[in-house]
Write a structure and sequence with these properties.
Number of helices: 8
Structural class: alpha/beta
Distance between the termini: 44 Å
Helix content: 40-55%
Radius of gyration: 18 Å
Oligomer: single chain
Length: 247
């Protein structure tokens, strides 16, 4: 269990869904929050809702200059939680170059832009807490997930490299891989989403995972194990089970 009281955390992608729910969870424990997203109006509303100390700094993580300016304004922090992400369900047969590139640019390169500002600071002061929001889709390529699955797989690999390089320091790296959460992103899906969670429940579980000491974790547990076990399947078994012919 971590000691949260009085710690200062930067939450990026905090204005909606999981990020908004997590902000409420953390605020109730006495964390001083700095909230970032593109929508200044939604950030202002969230700051007013929270029971604890909070401020906001707008950011566009697709713009390196915006990230650098936001990091400078945020100042000293004890931890960062990267929750920003975009998603469209796209199959290879319906390739949309603009949306696929956006998923990489926000979900993966956006995280790199933020980490480029945060990791050197943490290393210089000798401590920090980095939490990345992955996805169950990171474990293996999925149908209709061109862009999203690959960008989250890249984020998982990035987290592994960070965790490995920073072992032996007091900089703690975690990646948490949720399943389906009812948000504006998953509203784009036209299929039944197993084990889908409401944002409030997802935020509670996410914060529980942050409290633990595991580098990588996922939820819901049983649904997530399907994806983890799929990594053990040979290609001849995996693709007929997960992909319809022609996908």
């Amino acid at each position: 269990m971590r000691d949260w009281s009085g710690k200062r955390y930067w939450l990026i992608g905090a204005s909606e869904g999981l990020g908004r729910s997590l902000a409420h969870q953390m605020s109730r424990t006495g964390v001083d929050l700095v909230l970032s997203a593109r929508s200044e109006d939604r950030l202002q509303e969230l700051v007013a809702e929270l029971p604890g100390k909070a401020s906001y700094v707008p950011i566009d993580i697709a713009d390196r200059g915006s990230v650098e300016a936001a990091a400078k304004e945020v100042g000293e922090i004890d931890g960062v939680v990267f929750l920003a992400g975009v998603y469209w369900p796209i199959a290879a047969t319906e390739w949309d170059a603009e949306k696929v590139e956006a998923m990489f640019d926000i979900n993966l390169t956006g995280a790199v832009r933020v980490l480029g500002q945060v990791v050197p600071r943490f290393f210089e002061k000798g401590e920090g807490h980095i939490v990345l929001t992955g996805s169950l889709s990171a474990y293996r390529g999925l149908p209709g997930a061109i862009g999203y699955s690959a960008s989250k797989a890249g984020l998982f690999s990035l987290a592994e490299s960070l965790h490995g390089d920073l072992r032996g320091t007091d900089i703690d790296v975690q990646i948490i891989n949720p399943g389906f959460i009812r948000t504006r992103l998953t509203d784009k899906n036209d299929f039944k989403m197993p084990a889908i969670l409401e944002p409030d429940e997802a935020g509670r579980v996410f914060f529980e995972k942050m409290n633990g000491g595991n580098f990588a974790s996922h939820f819901p547990w049983a649904f997530g194990m399907i994806f983890k076990l799929s990594q053990l399947m040979p290609a001849w078994m995996y693709f007929p089970l997960f992909f319809k012919k022609g996908d």
